[in-house]
Amino acid sequence: MNKYQKWYNQIIANGKHTKLPGYERHHILPKSLGGNNKKNNLVYITSREHFICHWLLTKIYPTGEEHWKMLNALRIMRAENKNQQRYDTKITSRVYAKLKEEYSLLQSERVRGQNNPMYGDKFHRSEQGSLRQREAILGEKNGSKQPEAQKKISESKLGKKRAPFNETWLANLTATRQGERNGMFGKKQSGETKEKIREKAKLRTYSDETNEKRRQSNLGLKREKKLCPHCNQQVAVNGYARWHGDNCKKR
Asked: Is beta strand 23-27 parallel, antiparallel or unpaired with respect to 42-46?
């Protein structure tokens, strides 16, 4: 038994069997190494002790797949973003760099050669690869087309309301699609293309339920109107540019 294992065992021995304020649940044998959620494999320790235990585990398992898993667990514990900042434990730049380099090296080896899930697949060249990609998108494996998956997605969104976009974000979005940045800039659709779009739109149908929802959503709404200077008519703004203004027949 090395010193790291002894230190680890001491922390575990001083741990609690019931949760206390400020204490976190720790798996004595990590789940990634075969541990479970049974009481004899759980202990409650302080957040600082929890972090130190995962640091010690990278020393207890210094090689192989176990070492990569422990490095990954420690890396995740150090994750910081606007929604998570769990630990204030100080790590020197050298220690952090060493952990990062070890993890990057092991991760690179894990996905190299035949271990790479994309090994042998060249979707842009291989007809078989392209077919498999198409089946993954259109076939039964596509989660969005499975009733159970759709139900879960729908339930997860119930009662949630997206925060409105701020004006700066909207202005930036508009700027990215103006002028030469617009995908249709300088292009004109041929009469054949327009006819295809028209024929496709003619075949588009909506269910009675969808039509009723649209009708209910529009009840009581007053559509904004604009005065055409050529025919002197108040016209809904969504159709103004097409039939009035510069395109007005009485111009």
From this structure: antiparallel
